[in-house]
Amino acid sequence: MKHQLEFEKPIAELQRKLEELKKHPETHSIGISFEEEISQIEAKIAETRRQIYSNLSPWQRVQLARHPKRPYTLDYLKGVFSDFQELHGDRLFADDQAIVAGFAHLGESKVMVIGTQKGRETKENIRRNFGSAHPEGYRKALRMMKMADKFGLPIITLIDTAGAYPGIGAEERHIAEAIAVNLREMMLLRVPIIAVVIGEGGSGGALGIGVADRVLVLENAYYSVISPEGCAAILWKDRAATAKAADALRITAKDLLELGLVDGVVAEPLGGAHNDPAATAETLKHHLIKILGELQKLPVEERGRQRYAKFRGYGKFLEKPVPPPESQVAAT
User: Are 130 and 170 in contact (CB under 8 A)?
Assistant: First the structure.
């Protein structure tokens, strides 16, 4: 089992046992037929998979969201969309390959698709900066969005980034300003916008293309203001507290839906999207077509009001009553 995660080891052990039995059938248990033993192990594998993947912790879901075989934006561009024509550059500085964008068809609708893209191997990861965009990436995305708005094309964004690139060059070219401008301008666009967190949804890097009429999240993706590792380092001063931080952050799809931070959860095959990318793509396509149809029925002004209210409603807090000064307590 390649790219095996720690919690997947029981499944891998059973699969190795099954493969060994098939290679050497003479080793099967005495008193039971070969076919029956194979059937029992396969049933045990299926049950173990069901138990493990139905009871994943938040940290385990983060690990699945980062799985190196998980489908990325370019994979969904092949499986969900058709006739994709990539566009390049921000017309200001460079073409950031951590963000891909272009025209495509979603069913019968012409759309603009924009997404963060990681690499499959070291060379591509360096070229795409591990999916962490520079300021020019967000400016490229905004250029494409404004083009879509001009021609009346709905916008679909696919989010899969640990966060915007925090290096010196990005700071010199004003990464915070680039993201802030995107937040403002996306709120004002008149065309329908749907954002989907397909893997990692980290911090402002995710939100920079995440202001939308509807926000979806895949079942094993996460959306968070900070990574569990970063949270553990700040609050507990210990990377070993990463799993505890993931629990506290409430970053899983189920939590996000309960908190009203996303509008829907896209189901994944048992074990994660990488186990059946085609099925995941088909499910996502169904959701996107349905939601886009609903959004296109809304008047432009109403859609804009709903988008604004949606993001203004983010966040909940409790205020603890301030106790009166000791002098007042004594006086009473």
Answer: no
Q: What percent of the chain has pLDDT over 90?
A: 73
What confidence tens digit (pLDDT) does each residue in 269-283 have?
998 999 999 999 999
Of 223, 208, 206, give the one whose Cα is nearest residue 161.
Answer: 206
At 192, the amino acid letter reads P
Whole-number Å distance between alpha carbons of 208 and 133: 10
CA 115 to chain centre: 11
Tens digit of each residue's pLDDT (9 = 90 or more) over 107-154:
999 999 999 999 999 999 999 999 999 999 999 999 999 999 999 999
Q: Determine whether 62 is exposed, middle or buried from the number of CB atoms within 10 Å of its CB (0-12, 13-18, 19+).
A: buried
Global confidence as pTM: 0.87
Residue-range domain boundaries for the chain: 7-55, 62-312
- CATH code reported for the domain at 62-312: 3.90.226.10
Q: Residue 53 corresponds to which tokens in the numbers above?
A: 């993947």
Strand partners, 102: 86, 113
105's tokens: 């068809």
